[in-house]
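Quick check before the chapter quiz. The format below is the same one you will see on the exam, so make sure you can read both the input and the output lines.
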Amino acid sequence: MQYSVTPIGHVRSCFKEKFAIPRQPALAPAARGVLELLPPFDRPEAVEGLAGVSHVWLLFLFHQALESQPRLRVRPPRLGGNRYLGVFATRATHRPNGIGQSVVRLDGLEPGRLLLSGIDLLDGTPVLDIKPYVPYADSPPGARNAIAEAPPPALAVGWADAARVQAEAHGQRLGEPLAELIEQCLAQDPRPAYQVPAPERRYGVRLWDVEVHWHYPTAHQIRVLDVTAAS
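Here is the expected output.
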């Protein structure tokens, strides 16, 4: 038997492309966005009681990674991209039904909108459901995962003088903590784990409406080169 699902809303996110999105939620607290609810869920009755909740689970679709053929094994990026695991032992984007989940901070409610932070969701992500985070049930004592270890130490992020000035100026214009967002995302090292660092190679990503460029002067250091308006 087949089932169909309909989004209840879409996320408007700081992340305009998949590269540099943190691999788990909450790793970049400055990553903010808005969940815009669709009728009839944009009515106040649908979110009654959420004002007393600090975090919510979002069930969503990996809308840019949907696949016609299911995968039984995947290669998680955190494991270097060269080790296979069963799909159900990972949170890889290659899901049987394209469904993902993230626990994100609920910063506020506006008519038809949820204000969110600590997100790891691409702009335009369709959301299928919202569930309140329940601390006593969602963080059971003794929980373990022998595969998903804590992320490696964050890389040091330095700035070219002009780049920092640019980031602060664009952040003021956007009303967003842009410099903090850049540092938090890049410190997680968005490169594929198998890629050998090359100091001369420039990387780039779009956050909000700006382009951020950086390189790796050493294997354990990032230097932001410029932050400019996206073309």
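If your answer matched, good. The mean pLDDT is 93.
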